[in-house]
Write a structure and sequence with these properties.
single chain, 11 strands, about 50% strand
């Protein structure tokens, strides 16, 4: 009887996971603010159960509410930092392509341990953010 109680006790975590609906855990890793075409955006780097996500919200100037705009899932990626001017950062704004407009940079590490520098730029024609592709207009 004691071994049965021990076996049940040791498997409680597994049993709980079977009967508990899976909920997504989200942790904000970093936050940045950027302005494009007179619009203020709030950018979050978030850790989820599946990896990292970049979420962008438009800040309403009248109410200060944040309205969801876009999400870029970086599935299977893990948190990473980048050294800039002797400071460690995990989310930032840098003018990568020297067009006078700040681009979002978010370093991560993929599941194979390779470093990635994820870059997103604001496209005024689309009024949204797009992944940066070197050499693209």
């Amino acid at each position: 009887m004691i071994s049965l109680v021990f076996a049940i006790g040791s498997s409680m975590g597994s049993v709980r996971r079977i009967f508990t609906p899976s909920t997504e855990e989200r942790k904000i890793l970093a936050k940045a603010f950027a302005q494009y075409q007179e619009k203020m955006f709030v950018i979050f780097k978030i850790k989820t159960n599946t990896g990292i996500e970049i979420e962008i919200y438009l800040k309403d100037p009248n109410t200060n509410n944040q309205v969801f705009k876009q999400r870029f899932p970086l599935n299977d990626d893990a948190e990473a930092y980048l050294m800039v001017n002797n400071n460690s950062m995990n989310l930032g704004l840098v003018d990568i392509n020297t067009d006078g407009q700040m681009d979002i940079i978010a370093p991560t590490v993929d599941k194979n341990g390779n470093s990635r520098l994820n870059v997103f730029q604001f496209n005024p024609e689309l009024d949204s953010f797009v992944p940066y592709v070197e050499g693209a207009p």
